[in-house]
Amino acid sequence: MVSEEKNQNNIIRSELILDNTKYIFTDKPINRFKTKPKVEDISLKLEELRDEIEKIENCELKKNASKLVFSDGDNRSKIMIVGEGPGQKEDEVGKPFVGDAGILLNKMLKSISVERKNVYITNVVNYRPPNNRKPEPNEITKYSNFLRKHISIIDPKILILMGSSAMESLFGSKIKITKERGLWKEIIINNKTYLCMITFHPAYLLRQPENKKYSWTDLKEIRKKIDQLNLIL
Fold first, then answer.
1. What is this structure's pTM?
2. Which one of 34, 53, 143, 154 has the minimum C-beta count within 10 Å?
């Protein structure tokens, strides 16, 4: 009886040739879950990063804000936008770019046939600076580590830095946005190179509308790069 069972098992594991096609049969279960789906992995890492930011200590921004403003959009997108920091409206809603600057950002994206829902958006600092002031250098530095982790998780093909705070967070404060905007740059984060475009922040354009022409030039360069990289949005 035992011998008969062994023979049956050998037959199950043997190779069977049918119509010139080789089939291998086995009674071992197939592991269909060797790796987690990528989207699940990204979501988990983002939750861990969010928790890490929420636990930050000795932060005046956190003390004065009503809630953490983490991100908005598609975390699978190959385009990531980094703004400055939450304003009053963003602090109330808990999402970046939902005030007047957000309305202008939506129009800017649509002008190059990109829908906001198809990009990923975050800020340099995740809590609203008092009176909507610009983040201070020490605050930018403190949150830059979180931003770098954020970028690594999203892993974008195109990184758009809007405003001087976003630029300073990754490139330092020795350069001027008026000279650096509109130029493709590369930055290395965790041993990976990312393609960056520095451009004006929508809030700045609301105050200085005469500079919208420069942002339009930047947007056209971004659209051109999207097409060159064959990105589907």
1. 0.83
2. 34
